[in-house]
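Milestone M4 deliverable, item 7.
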Amino acid sequence: MKKACIFGAGQAGMMAVKWLPSNYKVECFIDNNPKKQNQKLDDIEVLSLEQALFTHPDLIWIAVLNKEAAAVIKEQIKEAGFMGEVLDIADFRAYQDVRVASLRLVAKELKERNVLGEMAELGVFRGDFAAVMNRLFQEKELYLFDTFEGFDEKDLVIEEQFGTPGIGHRDFSNTSMELVRAKMTYPERVHFYKGCFPETFPEDMPRLALVSLDPDLYEPVYQGLKRFYPLLNPGGVILIHDYNSMQFPGVKKAVRKFAEEEGIFVIPLMDMHGTAVIQKP
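Output delivered:
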């Protein structure tokens, strides 16, 4: 069995471990941050590059999405004298979007099984995922929920209990309903609900076949599940983004709480931030 080291002890590194072929064994993570070195991530030791080379890896996979940073790391590996294979996870992602590929497969299944109902997304941001939903289901109405101004302060207060680092400094306000609408292939099918969820949830919300939850934070994820799941028709699907994200730990906590309350199970997917799937029996 070949040996591999993953350069980057973060979210991308965690997913890179799961993407490796079965004939590779992960020896360690590599990270230049001294605070991460000699710790463990997912029970795998984090080492410096110099320490990692003593494991004699066949492959070093750079799991850093910033292209400039990845280029610096490649040079660092070369200067350290490593003669094995070096791969860049960014090259893989440039050709394959696992999340969108999963959506296409789900869409095909829903159509073949004739699952009835409309679509909704909570946490739209700039509308790229919603645009794919709209394009795949031109016959369905699409209901979009977002502040279109970034995180709501009430949700951030709740998120603080999970110790999410720097969550309040992440700016998702560079969007608008007009920007999102312009990306839609069938804009006449799209309905916008601007504001803090669930205050924007309409009483006459229709039955649903497909829901995307991507609001990043515990409270809107939990409230989204509480409101959208009962409206799913049999066979309907909810896709929850960031389920295995290190950046947004509240998402998994919200999903787990709801799943335990309802006696249901989730299926994790292998996209970069760990989407989870719930299907209505």
